[in-house]
Amino acid sequence: MGTFVKNLQKMRIVVSFYRNQVLFWLGGQTDEEKLGFGFKLRCQTIANGIDPMQKELIALLMDESLPLQKRLMAITSRLEALLEELEETATEEELCQYRFLYESVYTDLTEMKSVLGDFVAE
């Protein structure tokens, strides 16, 4: 498996996790509901892993000095930047071959950004 597709698959998994967090935040009434069940265990599992990017993102998610919405917005922005970096490393052939996977990640990030942006306090 090539590096590009491996990294793109990893992005798909990570973005899915944070997309779920955005949906929990959007639909939750209490802080517990906004974080989702098993939040601490899920975070601890990721924090104990070896991937520095995932550790960076989970640390941001767990940083209670910012409101949850702002943390999720920062994570979404970071994920967008990572996807752009990944795209820059791909060949045209790889982008064509894995277009559906790439677009699914891009679509989720765009939706997350839109949902989070719709609720920015003025």
Task: Give a written overview of the molecule.
There is one protein chain. The chain is mainly α. About 80% of the residues lie in helices and about 0% in strands. It has seven helices and no strands. Helix 4 packs antiparallel against helix 5.
The unreliable regions are none
Element string (H = helix, E = strand)? HHHHHHH
Count of DSSP helices? 7
Distance between the termini: 47 Å
Structural classification = mainly alpha
Largest sheet: none
Mean pLDDT: 91
**Rg calc:** 15 Å
Percent of residues in helices: over 70%
How would you concisely characterize the structure shown here?
The chain has 122 residues and is an all-alpha fold. The protein has helices spanning 3-27, 31-35, 39-47, 52-62, 68-89, 92-97, 99-118.
Write the layout of secondary structure elements.
Elements: H1 3-27, H2 31-35, H3 39-47, H4 52-62, H5 68-89, H6 92-97, H7 99-118
Helix pairs in contact: 1-5, 1-7, 4-5, 5-7
Which features characterize this protein?
122 residues, mainly alpha, 80% helix, 0% strand, globular
